[in-house]
Amino acid sequence: MRRDNTFWAMVDGRLPLPAAATLLGWRFQAHNETDRSVSVSFDASDALTNPLGQIHGGMLAAMLDDCMGPAIYVELPPDRIAVTVESKTVFIQAARPGRLFGYGRIEHWRGQLCFVSGRLSDGQGRVLATATATFRIGHLRWRGWRVPGPLVRHLLRRQLRKRAAVKAATQGEG
After folding, report:
1. Over the stretch 34-81, which tens digit does the pLDDT of each residue have?
2. What CATH number does residue 162 fall under?
3. Which of 46, 65, 99, 170 gets the most CB atoms within 10 Å of its CB?
């Protein structure tokens, strides 16, 4: 298992989560190397509801994407990215605000394409929605140029050192 990429730096709290993950209340729970899966949870707030007080279907689809993508990102080297190119969501039951549990699993990976599945359930274990998706694996690029792995690792280490220094400075003030 790789722990030298941006994903693990976010999970470990060394880098901030993306704004979308924060909005969804995303939390990493576990990674199972054997079946290439991850477990996550979401604190689904009232801000994610439709007029009926249920979690909006688009938010559930975003949650499922944030179950399936991490199943890939736990294995990617730091100079690679995974982008969703196709996704299909099946809504089974209405979801209410509160803690939701997600599961994402790599079903098949061939070359630059990765096929994944995901599932959301509530605290009673009822399945709320499922999804399948295809992700394209590519090289990290900046202004059209491929960013080499050693440079990505260097930039990641530099960013982590900066964040640690800021954190230490703010703790010293208190």
Report:
1. 999 999 999 999 999 999 999 999 999 999 999 999 999 999 988 888
2. 3.10.129.10
3. 65
